[in-house]
Amino acid sequence: SVSPAPDEPTDHHPSDTIINLDHGDPTMYESYWKVVGQKYTSITIPGFQSLSYFANKKNLCWFLEPKLEEEIKRLHKMVGNAIVENRHIVVGTGSSQLILAALYALSDPLNEPNPISVVSAAPYYSSYPEMTDFLRSGLFKWSGDARCFNKEGPYIEMVTYPNNPDGVIREPVVNRANGMLVHDLAYYWPQYTAITSPADHDIILFTVSKCTGHAGSRIGWALVRNENIARKMVKFIEVNTIGVSKEAQLRAANILETISLSCQRHKPRDLENFFECSQRLMAERWKKLREAVDNNELFYVPKFPIQFCNFTRDFTETYPAFAWLKCKEGMDCEKLLRGHKILTRSGRRFGSGAEYVRISMLSRDEEFDLFLQRLSAVGGDNN
Amino acid sequence: SVSPAPDEPTDHHPSDTIINLDHGDPTMYESYWKVVGQKYTSITIPGFQSLSYFANKKNLCWFLEPKLEEEIKRLHKMVGNAIVENRHIVVGTGSSQLILAALYALSDPLNEPNPISVVSAAPYYSSYPEMTDFLRSGLFKWSGDARCFNKEGPYIEMVTYPNNPDGVIREPVVNRANGMLVHDLAYYWPQYTAITSPADHDIILFTVSKCTGHAGSRIGWALVRNENIARKMVKFIEVNTIGVSKEAQLRAANILETISLSCQRHKPRDLENFFECSQRLMAERWKKLREAVDNNELFYVPKFPIQFCNFTRDFTETYPAFAWLKCKEGMDCEKLLRGHKILTRSGRRFGSGAEYVRISMLSRDEEFDLFLQRLSAVGGDNN
Q: Are B215 and B230 in contact (CB under 8 A)?
């Protein structure tokens, strides 16, 4: 869950300010969009546009802007990270809403007397338990770590790759009959990991927040194989919010279009390739983080295999959007870092131990550098 | 609920096209915004703006754009339809999300073993039952017509004025201890009814969809007296959609600002007073509808008292956004009109009888005129 920082960093007293890396606010991407700026990405919406609830009455997803649908398909085809042919696209108010829509669409038609179990292998995205249970739904219920799941009957497994919080490329772990899968691929983009093949699953979720950095827009989308499931997801969004903001969809379409343009061979000179630029930033940050951690006996971060990326046509490591930092056994890592004015999310929130924390790698440069300075200082105190 | 028309009206074969007045799509307002147009209401959003999840970390509602908050307050103060002093403003993805947020905020802290009853006096907004029950929540449960409610213990009553579907100015009907009220004031604006006093309740919901016509933006807001309730509503929106689209909020702020400007004594000459213009349109449509109904023995529409409006400083009728049309007893009005290619919503959906239908009065001019022609023809067939 997202919760505001008690204080924002200021330029005046950097040593007193609290750095909030608890949530994954993707402000790192501001630098790219400032350069690209006015020329490629401004959109203007006149007052008489998009008054209607409807964007496209002929479409199963009647509130989806045709332009956004087009740009989503174009981007996936170019990046090669998901199959879009013969898939229904459902737009959501961020992928959070689509997770709930998927749970509803999968569980409601079963008419089971008891709620369907929802599981994910630990460490799992910390919001899954809360999203699943906050309304005490009779349709679905959080049932914890997928590796410990042993109930009979239907279940839903959330499969996240690269995984939030730890960056691992995952596969389903339960693998039983009556299993239903929701693939959360928010981070399956070239800046974070090698694109090894186009994802091909029943329900796949993406979000602009993590792809382009536009978290404030609240735009996500699902690629759905089965028409009835897609219809049910649309139904959920209809009852929950009667569709998705048209302004946000139009802007997201414009942003995705710019990214696609930036990846063309004959692109404008002043438009740097978005994924190259973002991957370079991520690689630099991970290099700096590893240096800080290597010089420090207290901490450990996971290593990732090098794989060939079909999009960049080169070998690459995984550079996750979060660092899954581990302290020595028995230490409370979140508490330790909080003492040094670094707010992170405890491993306990992800179904793991207190020796772990999740740290956002997507903050602005100043914050990231200050974080590294302080992390190094923690070692200094304790070694 | 909103569902797309099987066919949209075209200019080519008006006699074959189906007119969909089932949902309240407020396209009537396009004509005003086209005239005001580019000059006052275009907004431009550069690509680097609003990347963050946060709009205002210091605010209880951390995803609320400060500019939108300011314009909401300004408009309410000018119109005089709600007290904003010492109220918390919570923005939502339309008022649908805020209804759910309110139900959650009121029921969750009670820790009751059984779901809290949610009631509203019939005829009630047809979406209340579905919104309340679609996730089979253990927190709240639809319990039907408030006038028949006789259970002990806490309950939530939805109070809607002017009422959707029938335009009546309402008050709570249960009036028992442990009652909690949510006031849905989507239509408490000068184009629909006299503003007789500023609303002053615990939780009041508004939406731009019905105030300005921008239903595609999905922006609503709640005025909340109690801080803990407001925090809980924010929490709901955080878990449900991690906030509300910034683009939609910025545009809504711009639209509300233009409306406020249009009501100033020293307004620009080419900016017609929004509420005067909209009220004139509504009055004309209701006059035409009454003429069509008066010439027809089959149908009846309710009459409304004339009241003094503190905003327009004049006496006015209520001109509801929906016509609550009644057929002769024993007829199925929705079926009858469907036979004449007019889609409406049956009274049964609102907890009333099949002799009633709800008809949107907010369609585009062409559609409204075609509707009146066909309504007159129904009489011709049957008289």
A: no
Q: What rounded mean pLDDT belongs to chain A?
A: 94
Enter the ipTM. Answer: 0.95
Do the Cβ atoms of A44 and B44 come within 8 Å?
yes
For residues A231 and A188, the answer to whether their CB atoms sit within 8 Å is: no
- For residue A58, the distance in angstroms to the closest alpha carbon of chain B comes to 8
A32-49 pLDDT tens trace? 999 987 788 888 899 999
Contact assignment for A241 to B255 by CB distance below 8 Å: no
Q: Do A57 and B4 touch (CB under 8 A)?
A: yes
Q: Which CATH class is domain A47-262?
A: alpha beta
Q: Report residue A109 CA to chain centroid gap.
A: 28
- CA A291, CA A296: separation in Å to the nearest integer? 9
* Dist. CA B345–CA B286, nearest whole Å: 19
Q: How far apart are CA A247 and CA A254, in angstroms?
A: 11
Mean per-residue pLDDT, B59-75: 98
Residue A6 has pLDDT above 60, yes or no: no
Q: Which fold has domain B19-34+273-382?
A: Aspartate Aminotransferase, domain 1 (3.90.1150)
The set of residues, in sequence order, having a beta carbon less than 8 Å from that of B266 and lying 6+ positions away, is none
Picking from B299, B325, B277, B279, the residue whose alpha carbon sits closest to that of residue B187 is B279
Domain B51-262's class?
Answer: alpha beta
Whole-number pLDDT of residue B1: 46
